[in-house]
User: Fold these one by one.
Assistant:
Number 1:
Amino acid sequence: MKYATLHLSAILWLSLCALTQAKEVRLYTQRHYPADKEFFAQFTKDTGIEVKVIKAGANELLTRLESEKAAPQADLFITTDAGALDRADAAGLLDKLNNKTVADRIPAGLQGKNGTWVPITMRARVIVYSKERAGKNLPKTYEDLADSQWKGRVLIRSSSNAYNQSLLASILAAEGRDAALAWAKGVTANMARPPQGNDRDQVRSVALGLGELAVVNTYYLGLLENADDPKDRAARAAVGVIFPNQSGRGAHVNVSGAGIVKGAKNRPHAVALLEFLTSKKIQASYQKMTSEFAVAEGIKPEPLQAKWGTFKPDLTSLHELAGHQEEAVKIFDLAGWK
Ligand SMILES: [Fe+2]
């Protein structure tokens, strides 16, 4: 009788635990887009799984994951840089995903080489030019931006920006240190002004006549085109888009991607969220709402993306960014790129 009572109370306790244990996925993310918030709310509505979000820079999140290694406080890690995901992988912070549904949706060349992360969206770093003033002899490669014919005509943001560091890391991976340093020096010499502002500001400045070429991530062209401010829409309309290095290694691309944290308490829920974010419906919604490229196969580009044209991405350098990021920062300093 005593045993039966014990047994019963144990069952009661266990079912109480099941009832009270939160159905949740704890997310560390570098992304800060309103669209993400909407998708997470939709996921919670569909599955009953809460998404608890902590936002910070990639390095801060990596430090945090490292310090919590013994008792992980996150289930899923999302960044806007393949290099940061590879650094997390190299530090042993991520688990293999082992999920066929997700893996089968995405081209292998875009997925982490060790099976520990998958992309969610992709962006290219492109050159834009003034349709009115840049002339006919337009650049075809990133290397052309360093050509002296563009002296005083190039607009590009600061070297402390991760997008430029990732671009220089890709040049380091493809061309080596000497070429990368020469390129950084050449571009610095060609700048129309000391680096300032964000990607969108460079496009606005081309439209204002402050320079003829700018470097920008593709989705910002979408954001300008869809902007409420007519000046922003006019700035977008004033520039043409060049996907660089199309007869060589391809245009520099980076991804927003996600990896399951090693030891994640809510692994099945984290996997469910990844299945949701890589589904056809959400992939198409990313394109519509953030103008990033879908990574799942078979998603048609939005009309405003189709206008940019099709392009060949540099998928080799994408997987070599982690090893070159530190050196990229040093080279920017050596070149005097503020
Ligand atoms: Fe951005």
Number 2:
Amino acid sequence: MSRSPDASIAIAAHDIAAWHTHTDVLVIGYGGAGACAALEAAACGAEVTVLEVASDGGGTTALSGGQIYLGGGTPIQNACGFSDTRADMEAYIRIAAGANADADKISAYCEGSLEHFDWLVNQGVVFNPEYYGGKHTNTPEYQSLTWSGNEKGFRESQAAKPAPRAHKPKAFWEDGGATLMATLKAAVARSPIRVETDTRALALIHDNGRIVGALCRQDGELRAFGARRGVVLCAGGFVMNREMVAKYAPRLQDATPIGNPNDTGGGILMGIGAGGAAINMSEGFVSVIWYPAGAFCEGVFVNEQGQRFVNEDCYHARGGHHCLNQSGRKAYMVVDSTIFTEPPLYAAAQVKEVGESFEELERDAGFPEGTLAATMATYNRFAARGEDPLFHKHRDFLRPLDKPPYALLDFSIDSGIYYPSFTLGGLDTTVDGEVRRPSGAVIPGLYAAGRNAAGLPRSGEGYASGFSVGDATFFGRRAGRTAARNS
Ligand SMILES: Cc1cc2nc3c(=O)[nH]c(=O)nc-3n(C[C@H](O)[C@H](O)[C@H](O)COP(=O)(O)OP(=O)(O)OC[C@H]3O[C@@H](n4cnc5c(N)ncnc54)[C@H](O)[C@@H]3O)c2cc1C
């Protein structure tokens, strides 16, 4: 076989003329999920080989902020003075995951959260028992604990006592992901795990329906890697594959894809080619950022009808989701001079209009008469009492906007403001990482984790930082363990 095979068709083992090598567990992709799958499979006594298309491991996990969603009373939560329970964490994630939530995965994740914290520490991950309480996209310095979602939101806080659960490995600002992957790779280097870089997996190999290896391109040749116990797909999401985005998640098309260049969905396509079901494929994280500074949460989002549509203190992915949902995808933020002079405006939104009154702002920006001004009058009337009966913004951010001049900041996607996005769909897997067929039956020998699978994060609207790296590392371990025990 000399031509590149089609990922969407698994190859029969009897068509393989010569096997390049064999191992017990073959892990495809050396990011967060792959590193953890390999470490756990090796700890179970399996011979493990990891294949990575790039020249080094890391993947999107290394580019990430490194926040890991952990709770139920971790040593870092306790040291920072927060109490948390598994039940509150589970109730929160159930709401956050939305209608497509996988209750079994959420339950397993919350039950295993403290053990997972300990496991990460045992691999060498250092968490710093310092808390950052401001509104930010990550902890701005070396603090390891912060809020990362909508835990304090009205609906969420009624169902679950809020607690900060984003745990960033000790690292400056956004370096948490690079630090996490450097630590996991060091753990892999101490183990007998074999890592082969510059190796692209192209298609899975099956023997009467059981997955027994993968055909790869390495050193310019097609090589068959055999797997006695199983193949674990950990090759990331598909946001860089614009054809797949157009087909499965068209809502993300105009947003800016973020991740590593190999987020092309190859692992998902290979899984589909072997008979696996792909689910949750239309969901994605889409954000627009208006904080820091936290003072911008005192601003008021309006649509082109001059109406509010979201609580402005929410997590930025919820804001991005709702801004994109407005008619014409038009969204603006009203601020007064107190907020506007608060440097810096992280989001770099353009000023669309400035006015000495809301009526002037409304007229000059072209809103129908009595719309924006009425919205602001209502907002200010309740905010003066510390109330937001429409969207339940937390009273910490409720203040009448009454210091002119007022400005209208443009958060519409066509204004050029940054809307980062990545995908949340993937192969349908059991809680132990086995890939399911559309019928629900599992495919023998095939496992998946991280963004190759549909895991913990199922909803862009409910997303919290830490869900993805938490999911990739936690369920990567489970998939590696299950594969290693497969005989
Ligand atoms: C800027 C940014 C910040 C983020 N911050 C956070 C955060 O703080 N917390 C959080 O939870 N989430 C965060 N995320 C999301 C999170 O990083 C990812 O969803 C998660 O790390 C994915 O892990 P993974 O192991 O599935 O994939 P990856 O880490 O991307 O690993 C996949 C690996 O597979 C390799 N690969 C791909 N195709 C093949 C192939 N055919 N053959 C061999 N190898 C292949 C890739 O090169 C890559 O190394 C962030 C994302 C971005 C882009």
